[in-house]
Design a protein that fits this description.
five-stranded antiparallel beta sheet
Length: 166
């Protein structure tokens, strides 16, 4: 497991199950009145081009050192876009995941529900999927296939704006 705690944000790449209670604890402080989560789970059925695919399990791989840098960039972008967000936690699971397992979790907290936490959590999962080098292999009864995303990093994505968050 790789994890980082940098004042107001935490991120982790983990092989074990994601503990949502631990995630709540990570983003809860006395000044927090709301937490918004996004959790992505492994589904057993996918429809692609009107074709039903039944998944047995998924396998996630990551380029760890670059993934850490890019996840940190996602957290920084959340703070820049949503200044009232107090804490961010991003957790991505790697390795084998079975149907129903949590693959990714994003938690954002703030003093009040109207402080942008819903939009921040959505932005966080979308950016994570866009720029963090994590690959998914879908395994089914007919074989396996690496699933390619549709996003290609831009020059801006490859030059993270990383600085200390106070």
């Amino acid at each position: 497991m790789t994890s980082t705690n940098d004042n107001n944000f935490q991120f982790a790449l983990v092989e074990e199950a994601i503990d949502l209670n631990q995630l709540v604890a990570m983003v809860t402080t006395p000044d927090v009145g709301g937490i918004c989560f996004f959790t992505g789970i492994v589904r057993g059925v996918t429809y692609l081009e009107e074709k039903k695919l039944v998944t047995d399990h998924l396998f996630y791989e990551a380029y760890i050192s670059m993934a850490e840098q890019m996840i940190k960039q996602v957290a920084i972008e959340i703070y820049q876009k949503y200044p009232d967000v107090k804490h961010v936690s991003l957790v991505q699971r790697i390795g084998r995941l079975d149907i129903g397992d949590i693959a990714v979790a994003v938690a954002c907290s703030s003093g009040h529900r109207g402080d942008g936490i819903f939009a921040a959590a959505e932005y966080g999962i979308n950016r994570l999927k866009e720029i963090v080098p994590i690959w998914k292999k879908e395994v089914c009864s007919k074989g396996s296939e690496w699933v390619l995303g549709s996003y290609h990093p831009t020059a801006q994505d490859n030059q993270p704006n990383i600085h200390k968050i106070n």
